[in-house]
Amino acid sequence: MNLTQLRAFHVVARAGSFSLAARTGGASQPTLSAQVKALEASYGVGLFARKGRGVQLTPVGQSLHAITSRLFAAEDEAQALLAGSRALTRGHLRVSADSAYHVMPILAALKRRHEGLTFSLKIDNSAAVIDQLIDHSADIAVMAKMTSDPRLYSMKLRDDRLVLFVQRAHPWAKRGRIPLSDLAGRDLVVRERGSITREVFETRLAEAGLKPGTLMEVQTREAVREAVAAGFGIGVVFESEFGNDARFRPIHVADADLAVGEYVVCLEERRRLALVRTFIDIAGHIAAGRQTPAAKRPAGE
DSSP per residue over the chain, as a string? Predict the structure, then answer.
């Protein structure tokens, strides 16, 4: 088996396109394309299907990518061990998150510390984020869901909580705090199933035996805000993400535990990889309220 061809396949599968793989993988696009075609021809299989400007893994490609992820993760871990504390100068980190708010400070600190690194960030609900870690389409994640899956490593980043919000003209706009029971029969705007926002909030309503009115389900936080602005109901959002939108007023629920933790999560088998380990290290400094560590310079600089 040709290891060079396998590596070419792996970097394209990670990047999702031949062009991005060429920019981050140290080989030209024609070279990567030729190596992948040779691998496919050798075994009579198709590994990629074209999708717009990128590529999509075929079922065989997905299975092979799971294997090459383990193969090259071990190689990267060995390299990181032998390289010791040498500064990272290149690499591409695929990050998945259920919100941009908590992950951006970590990425910004990582960029300042290692200017040669590149990143991709995908925002989805917590259930989808976990799936992306498991199927190796993300290297690391930041999400508001604690997991006991033994395949995953998690570290708490910070605490947050859910708050309600209403239009400025809403009768509740000046209340500030309400009991959970006031939500009985009220129309709500909520995220899609799989989001931790909805999971926590519906659990608290069920525990109290409360049934809201109409539930309007939307897929993004931006859509929740616009639906509330349009008068479809009361919105639910993380307190840290409420922001300063003058159209809305936040309302705290006085008698329900709406606290939610935010976690950094990765596959246990990948936590020692240099990029992943550095992300976790910086997140740990942020979680502890410390200044993020400066980049380590090679000897002689």
Answer: --HHHHHHHHHHHHHSSHHHHHHHHSS-HHHHHHHHHHHHHHHT---EEEETTEEEE-HHHHHHHHHHHHHHHHHHHHHHHHHTTPPP---EEEEEES-HHHHHHHHHHHHHH-TT-EEEEEE--HHHHHHHHHTTS-SEEEES-----TTEEEEEEEEEEEEEEEETTSTTTTT-EE-GGGGTT--EEEEPTT-HHHHHHHHHHHHTT---SPEEEESSHHHHHHHHHTTS-EEEEEGGG-TT-TTEEEEEETTS--EEEEEEEEEGGGTTSHHHHHHHHHHHHHHTTPPPPPPPPPTT-
